[in-house]
Every structure is written in C-alpha cells, then in structure tokens.
Amino acid sequence: MKLPDFEADIELNALRAAMGGAGLRDYTAAPSSNVLTIEEIERLAGEGIEIPLDEVRVLNDGSHVYKGRRVVVYIRDVAEYGTRTATLPKYHLAMCDTLHKMMEEGRYKKRYVVATRDDGKFSIQRIRGETVTKSDEPLDVCQKCLDELKYRSFSRRLAPSERTAAVQHFSLKDFFEEIGRSCVWAMPRFDAVHAPTNIYSHQFYWIARNLKEKRGYRCERIGCGIDLSQPSNRKFLHAHHMDADKSDNHPSNIKLLCIKCHASEFQHSHVRESPDYARFCKKFSLTWPGQL
C-alpha cells in the first residue's frame, strides 16, 4: 500500500494551519527491543551486559538466549571480606539445578551478567568495602550445566577425575561453534519488505578461500576433521553459514565442512545431488544414497 504525500494533502495542511502551523518532523522507528544493537553485541563480547536472570530465555535444547543470541550467564560482582578471598563463580550454559534453586528461593532478581565472550575469561568486579577492583578472570564451566546439556556425553555420574578433566578441557569457543550462536527461535530483524535478499556476497568466495587456507583445509565438524588439503580434494570442503544468513561472512559465522557433513546440516540435503558428493563418498569409501 502506497502512503499519500502528506506534505501535499490539502486537508492535513488545513488542520496544521488551524493548529498554529504545526511543523513536520522526520520519524525514525525505535529499534526493536528483541534485537541486539551494535553496542550490545560489542558489550556481550567484552564486559557483558548486566540484566535480571528472568530476562534470559531458555531454548528447547536447554541453552540460554538473550535477544536471539546464545549467551553464558554468571555473577560478575564478587564480595570479599577481611582476609577472605572470595571463590570465583562458575559460568552457566543452561538452566541447571543451581539456577533453578536460586529462582525457587526468590533470588532470581539478583543481577547477573550475560556474555558471548569465548576465550574463557570473564569481567569480574571484586568488591571490598567501597573499593571495586575490575579484572578479567578465567572461570570454570558449571558441571551441572554440562550434565543438563549432556554435552559430549558429560555426566555427573562420572568419576571426579573425569569430571575435572572435562572442565579443564572445555572450550567455550568450541561450544559456540558446535551449538551455534544465533537461534531460529529469535525475533527476525527484518520484515518481508525490508529484508535483504539472502544471497552470497561478491566477497564470499574470496573470504571462504582464505578461511580454508588459514584453518588448514579440515572439516570442522566434531568427530570428522577429515584433511582435504590436497589440491585435488579442496573442492570437497565447503564454507557453511551457521545462522543461514549468506550475507554474514564474519569468520565466527562460517564453519568449514566436508561435503558429506555439509549435506547433513538442516535443510541442506540438496547437497547430496551434487556430483561432487558421489565422487567424495566413492573416493573416501563412504556410503552415499546412490549406492543404496
């Protein structure tokens, strides 16, 4: 529907004149409260954003999401008294027993911080009296969260040494790459009129080629890792957009997958129709639909 030209509308201008010549103003819609702003994205990757715990949604897979982005949750402010040095908190990947208990006890309104930083360090504020000391500290992942998600078969029934080893070797970067940062349950950023066409950008192929070289031409799916660095095999390595937005070529949104792993991604079964899929499976002695 095409809107009329209000500046040329006779009745509207007559009404404006009766109101004493009310002026026209440019209108800019306020950003959606369900979409992260550029500032929020930067803060999530750095010091985090302080919000009440009940503003964090829990997805069907158990992980946390804030405005369409998977996040981790932790308590930033650590109080210290006398000679006691406070124990640093764990960070949470899911709505585990610990967070459930805090909500049941009415402590959910305590301020939490959500973050997407993936280097294992978190912004901590040590508070002693009126003095606040800020630092970036390495924190351990919550074992109850790993158990809730059944992440890489983790269980609290494992021996203490096995659980400790799992925590020590846990990588937030690997976690986000495996489970994805963006969520299909999130509020879309655009409507049907303003949404950009979901096509590959002109820079995508150059970016993909450089990422493959930088990452050693290996499939990045957990459990695969096939080496496709031989020049004749490089065509079998695809650059997959994890959030399905082909225009988002940030390295964090691109996962390198062999053609077989790529075909197993959601809504990517069409990849099996490529002649390269059959060639790959035959060359590496893998089963493909044409052989069944």
Strand and helix layout:
Blueprint: H1 10-18, H2 38-44, E1 49-52, E2 57-58, E3 64-66, E4 69-74, E5 77-79, H3 97-104, E6 111-115, E7 121-128, E8 131-138, H4 143-149, H5 160-169, H6 172-179, H7 204-214, E9 237-241, E10 254-258, H8 259-263, H9 275-283
Parallel strand pairs: 5-7
Antiparallel strand pairs: 1-6, 2-3, 3-4, 4-6, 7-8, 9-10
Describe this structure in words.
The strands form three sheets. A five-stranded antiparallel β-sheet has the order 1-6-4-3-2. Strands 5-7-8 form a three-stranded mixed β-sheet, with no helix packed on it. The N and C termini lie far apart (53 Å). The model is unreliable at 184-193 and 288-292 (pLDDT under 50). It is flat. The chain has helices spanning 10-18, 38-44, 97-104, 143-149, 160-169, 172-179, 204-214, 259-263, 275-283; strands spanning 49-52, 57-58, 64-66, 69-74, 77-79, 111-115, 121-128, 131-138, 237-241, 254-258. The chain has 292 residues and is an alpha+beta fold. Strand 7 and strand 8 form a beta hairpin. It has two domains: 38-179, no CATH class; 204-291, no CATH class. The chain is built from nine helices and ten strands.
